[in-house]
Amino acid sequence: MTDKPILRALRGEVLPTPPVWMMRQAGRYLPEYRATRAKAGDFLSLCYTPELAAEVTLQPIRRYGFDAAILFADILLVPQALGLDLRFVQGEGPRLSTVTDAAGVAALRPLDAIHDTLHPVYETVRILAGALPPEVTLIGFAGAPWTVATYMVAGRGTPDQGPAHRMKDTDRAAFVALIDRITTATIEYLDAQVQAGAEVVKLFDSWAGSLKGADFDDFALEPARRIIAELKRRHPALPVIAFPREAKERYVGFAGAVGADAVAIDNSVAPDWAAAHVQVSGCVQGNLAPHHLVNPADLEAETRRIVDAFSGGPHIFNLGHGITPDADPDNVHRMLAAIRG
Ligand SMILES: Cc1c2[nH]c(c1CCC(=O)O)Cc1[nH]c(c(CCC(=O)O)c1C)Cc1[nH]c(c(CCC(=O)O)c1C)Cc1[nH]c(c(C)c1CCC(=O)O)C2
């Protein structure tokens, strides 16, 4: 049995102080991140240079003593490994070549080939596994198939995921084939991260909230269930965190339905409601609104409200979404003081 606080919470233990980390904790709000990114040249070079990716992963651990480190990489590396062109345009976000029909799905690279692109990520994990303090848990991650598909179909981020919805509704067979290709690639990608030393994996389904009714079952729930079942078949003790962002009432029972050990919730969910309806079935991660780290007027009060609401069950403190570049690094210390006392 291990004593790392994150692993204890994921096993269902209720700790006197919740363990804590932050989505996007290695990021542009930190001057040391911006310096290392400048050294790498651009964001993708940073992702694919293991020594530098490991360095930015460790920076927030050194500065704040978080309980978990999350591998520095991006969910869009999988589409790139499947053969799409990917670039990040400064100030605009990602741009990819697109997959919009059956021929596009058929042209994706075969499953075995993904490691040709992704092997530097596994090296980053290996460096981190040997460099982290013993009480810190190393989290690997991937995008969930629906969210990854929304970028592959549109070639960019979209406000309503319209292009992916249209492909799903007009060319169902090709869309199902695309989800299947992402699902199998994600299993091999996460398996390789675990073999390299990731102790927990997290699935980011940032756009799960735009799936309704049976579509939510088919494209948020079922692919996550398949990925987790296969990973746990290969690694029975592996804890998994699922993040079906903006799932609202579908957060209820989600972890159990997909076989995850914890569900991460966004900040549109009231902590008291989530404690009563979601945490009753297991560990919950979340859910401070990131804007409190920009404008800290209610930072301590909101942090305490979340800690108190979830104090009766297993809880990992986190934000409801990633910390933003305009956040003040000192506010993170204030948040930690409010959690840890
Ligand atoms: C949708 C999504 C992406 N990437 C990710 C998601 C899912 C989570 C979410 O909803 O935020 C996940 C992600 N992206 C990044 C991580 C690393 C780990 C972490 O610190 O959380 C993780 C887990 C680094 C990153 N990924 C990105 C940055 C900023 C890049 C930079 O340095 O310029 C970082 C630190 C870039 C990125 N990557 C992506 C977009 C849309 C963008 C551009 C928008 C932005 O700039 O924030 C795709």
From TrEMBL:
<feature type="domain" description="Uroporphyrinogen decarboxylase (URO-D)">
    <location>
        <begin position="19"/>
        <end position="28"/>
    </location>
</feature>
<dbReference type="GO" id="GO:0019353">
    <property type="term" value="P:protoporphyrinogen IX biosynthetic process from glutamate"/>
</dbReference>
<dbReference type="Pfam" id="PF01208">
    <property type="entry name" value="URO-D"/>
</dbReference>
<keyword id="KW-0210">Decarboxylase</keyword>
<dbReference type="GO" id="GO:0005829">
    <property type="term" value="C:cytosol"/>
</dbReference>
<feature type="binding site">
    <location>
        <position position="74"/>
    </location>
    <ligand>
        <name>substrate</name>
    </ligand>
</feature>
<feature type="domain" description="Uroporphyrinogen decarboxylase (URO-D)">
    <location>
        <begin position="139"/>
        <end position="155"/>
    </location>
</feature>
<dbReference type="InterPro" id="IPR000257">
    <property type="entry name" value="Uroporphyrinogen_deCOase"/>
</dbReference>
<feature type="binding site">
    <location>
        <position position="321"/>
    </location>
    <ligand>
        <name>substrate</name>
    </ligand>
</feature>
<comment type="pathway">
    <text>Porphyrin-containing compound metabolism; protoporphyrin-IX biosynthesis; coproporphyrinogen-III from 5-aminolevulinate: step 4/4.</text>
</comment>
<comment type="subunit">
    <text>Homodimer.</text>
</comment>
<feature type="binding site">
    <location>
        <begin position="24"/>
        <end position="28"/>
    </location>
    <ligand>
        <name>substrate</name>
    </ligand>
</feature>
<protein>
    <recommendedName>
        <fullName>Uroporphyrinogen decarboxylase</fullName>
        <ecNumber>4.1.1.37</ecNumber>
    </recommendedName>
</protein>
<feature type="binding site">
    <location>
        <position position="206"/>
    </location>
    <ligand>
        <name>substrate</name>
    </ligand>
</feature>
<comment type="similarity">
    <text>Belongs to the uroporphyrinogen decarboxylase family.</text>
</comment>
<feature type="binding site">
    <location>
        <position position="151"/>
    </location>
    <ligand>
        <name>substrate</name>
    </ligand>
</feature>
<dbReference type="InterPro" id="IPR006361">
    <property type="entry name" value="Uroporphyrinogen_deCO2ase_HemE"/>
</dbReference>
<feature type="site" description="Transition state stabilizer">
    <location>
        <position position="74"/>
    </location>
</feature>
<comment type="function">
    <text>Catalyzes the decarboxylation of four acetate groups of uroporphyrinogen-III to yield coproporphyrinogen-III.</text>
</comment>
<dbReference type="GO" id="GO:0004853">
    <property type="term" value="F:uroporphyrinogen decarboxylase activity"/>
</dbReference>
<keyword id="KW-0456">Lyase</keyword>
<keyword id="KW-0963">Cytoplasm</keyword>
<keyword id="KW-0627">Porphyrin biosynthesis</keyword>
<dbReference type="InterPro" id="IPR038071">
    <property type="entry name" value="UROD/MetE-like_sf"/>
</dbReference>
